[in-house]
Amino acid sequence: MDPQSLKTLNAERRARRAAILLTDLASGASRVIREGETVSGDLGAEVAKAFRTGLSGTVEAGGVSYFLNVSVPRPRLVVIGAVHISQALAPMAKVAGFDMEIIDPRTAFATEVRFPDVPLHADWPETVLKDRPLDGYTALAAVTHDPKIDDFALKSALEAGCFYVGALGSRKTHASRVKRLQDAGMSDSEIARIHAPIGLDIGASSPAEIAVAVLAQVIQALRSRGLSKADAGRAA
User: Fold this and answer.
1) Which of 26, 57, 135, 145 has its CA 20 to 30 A from that of 19?
2) The XdhC Rossmann domain covers which part of the protein (predicted)?
3) Per-residue pLDDT tens digits for 17-51
4) For range 76-91, the mean pLDDT
C-alpha cells in the first residue's frame, strides 16, 4: 500500500468518515476515495454500492479489475430519552452492530439499574453533545415527548447531517414540533428529514414493537444512503 494512501485512510478513520482504498489489481496503483467524491461510470456505481454495504471486495469496471478496501465508521445510535422503548431497543441495536448510547437529564429514568449495559448520560443534550458531537454515521432517535429535551437534539442532528433522524409523537405533536424548529431557524427541507411518527409503519403498539420498527427504519436509512426514494424502496 502506498504510504500516503495509508496516511490518508487513517486520517479519515480517525475523523469517523468513510473512505475506500481503491487498488488497480493489474498495476498495483492505489488511491483513496472519500464518500461523496464523484467517481464516474461503472466504477462509480460499484464505489457507491460499497459505501452503502460496507463490504470490501473485487469489482470489474471498464475492463479493469479493482479491489475495494472499504473503511466505514461503526454506526452509532443516540437515543434521547431513557424510556421503555429505549430499554427494548438497546439489546436489539447491539445485536445489529450499532454503538448505542442514551441521553436523558431526568435522573429518575436515566439509571444504571434500568440500563445496565448501555452508555448512559444523565444530562442535557446541550451538554453531552458538546463533547460527543453527532456526525454522518450517527442515527438520532428522540423519544422523550418533551420539547425541552428533544428539540435541541433534533436540531443538532439535522445540522450534523446524521443519516437518520426520528422523533416519537403523533402527527399533531409533530406539527407543533415543526413550528418550533422553523422558529429556531431550520428550513422546511431540513425538517422534512425527520421521520415522524418514528419507525416503519408495522402497526407497532408495545414499546418492544416500536423499538423493532425504529431499528428497522434506522437500518433502512443506513443501507439506502445516496439512493433515490424509488431505489431506496427497492433496496429495503
Assistant:
1) 26
2) 77-218
3) 999 999 999 999 999 999 989 999 999 999 999 99
4) 97
Contact 32, 8 (CB under 8 A): yes
Torsion of CA 221, 227, 231, 232, to 10 degrees: 0
Q: Where are the beta strands (DSSP E) in 35-175?
A: 57-61, 64-71, 76-80, 99-103, 120-121, 138-142, 164-167
Q: Domain extents for the chain?
A: 3-71, 76-223
Topology of domain 76-223, per CATH?
A: Rossmann fold (3.40.50)
> Which residue type is seen at 120?
L
pTM (predicted TM-score): 0.87
The model's pLDDT over 119-178, given as tens digits with 9 standing for 90+, comes to: 999 999 999 999 999 999 999 999 999 999 999 999 999 999 999 999 999 999 999 999
Task: Give the torsion sign (CA, 117, 123, 129, 130).
Answer: negative
